[in-house]
Write a structure and sequence with these properties.
This protein starts with 9 loop residues before the first strand and ends with a helix. 25% of the residues lie in helices and 34% in strands. The protein has two domains: 146 residues, 2,3-Dihydroxybiphenyl 1,2-Dioxygenase, domain 1 (Roll), CATH 3.10.180; 195 residues, 2,3-Dihydroxybiphenyl 1,2-Dioxygenase, domain 1 (Roll), CATH 3.10.180.10.
């Protein structure tokens, strides 16, 4: 896939930063529940006075957990409005200045002019532009840097370093936008970033008796960056996208999908560590083979772990979704294993929505 607009190639997801209420506790949660390893820290001890950040990593996934140190901090204001959630989706580039100049010249709103930060390990250049809601994209140029994470951070080496859970890299990040904002947001990624639309779903594809949504999946030329964009559709009751917006107070990243090459082992490990997943009824497996055909895995094992299956013309995928991982019913994770499939589990939408609606009914928000 190529596009003439793509003049600053994206090399992958550099990191995802969450603004949270308590960064130290959040970092411990991602270590103990998801198997992330401690990496770096910045805070009062490194000269920051308004925030602190703990950085955790598992294979190619880097999460930054940032919390406010003062009520005047912009982090505190973001958290007051949104609760725990994604603030920054950082993208690795060869030239952060060029990426900034290209995107802002095409209409992106600047969030940070190009800035060079240095330490004994070299230099990192970053810049940033706004996207949906209060979320920003940071361009990270680290060609001349050999440090752990970024200048200003020091190594974080606690004694507690749990085993990982087989999580490999960020597969995609879903943005949840408001009514009639999907097309505008998709056009933003097309016109500003040079993305192309991989696939789209309407309310006939993603609906139940009660709720519905629409989605467009935008991808860059190498398909290392995939951003499905969801908006609500009219239904009898309140959809998951509407619930997200009610509690997040606006558009934002609804979930991060993380890849594994052994979803059975990963889901088993995560369940053992206390991660809660959506319920999949046993009846789902009565007809799934008729729909997806032959697969390598033992169906009874997938049934035991409640793992969903879907197929496209390239292959098949296995996936499962956590329940929200914070108090507000907003952000969650997807665990995904692709067996050559490039799609997003369209065949599972019915079962997924019914599971989400069950949770909504339990919360009294359906």
């Amino acid at each position: 896939m190529t596009t003439e607009n793509n003049t600053f190639p994206l090399k992958g997801t550099d990191y995802v930063e969450f603004y949270v209420g308590n960064a130290k506790q959040a970092a411990h949660f991602y270590q103990s529940a998801f198997g992330f390893q401690p990496l770096a820290y910045a805070g009062l001890e490194t000269g920051l006075t308004d925030r602190c950040s703990y950085v955790v990593r598992q294979n190619k996934i880097t999460f930054v957990l940032t919390a406010a140190l003062t009520p005047e901090s912009e982090v505190a204001e973001h958290h007051r409005k949104h609760g725990d959630g994604v603030k920054t989706i950082a993208l690795l580039v060869d030239d952060a200045t060029k990426a900034y100049e290209e995107t802002t010249s095409r209409g992106a709103v600047s969030a940070q002019h190009p800035n060079k930060a240095t330490d004994d390990n070299g230099e990192v250049i970053t810049s940033a532009v706004e996207t949906y809601g209060d979320t920003v994209h940071v361009f990270v140029e680290r060609n001349n840097y050999k440090g752990l994470f970024l200048p200003g951070f020091v190594a974080w080496e606690p004694e507690y370093q749990p085993e990982d859970c087989g999580l490999l890299y960020v597969d995609h990040i879903v943005g949840s936008v408001g009514w009639n904002e999907m097309d505008k947001t998709a056009d933003y990624y097309k016109n500003v970033f040079g993305f192309e639309q991989l696939i789209s779903f309407d309310d006939k594809d993603i609906s139940t008796e009660y709720t519905a949504l629409k989605s467009k999946v935008m991808v860059n030329d190498n398909m290392w960056i995939k951003f499905p964009i969801n908006e609500p559709a009219v239904g009898k009751k309140k959809s998951q996208v509407e619930e997200f917006h009610d509690f997040y107070r606006g558009s934002g990243a609804q979930h991060v999908a993380i890849a594994t090459d052994d979803i059975v082992a990963t889901i088993a490990a995560l369940r053992d560590r206390g991660v809660d997943f959506l319920h999949v009824p046993d009846s789902y497996y009565d007809t799934v083979v008729d729909r997806v055909g032959e697969i390598d895995e033992d169906l009874e094992v997938l049934k035991k772990h409640k793992i969903l299956i879907d197929r496209d013309d390239k292959g098949y995928l296995l996936q499962l979704f956590t329940k929200p991982v914070e108090d507000r019913p907003t952000f969650f994770f997807e665990i995904i294993q692709r067996k050559d499939a490039i799609s997003f589990g369209k065949g599972n939408f019915q079962a997924l929505f019914e599971s989400i609606e069950l949770e909504q009914a339990n919360r009294g928000t359906l």
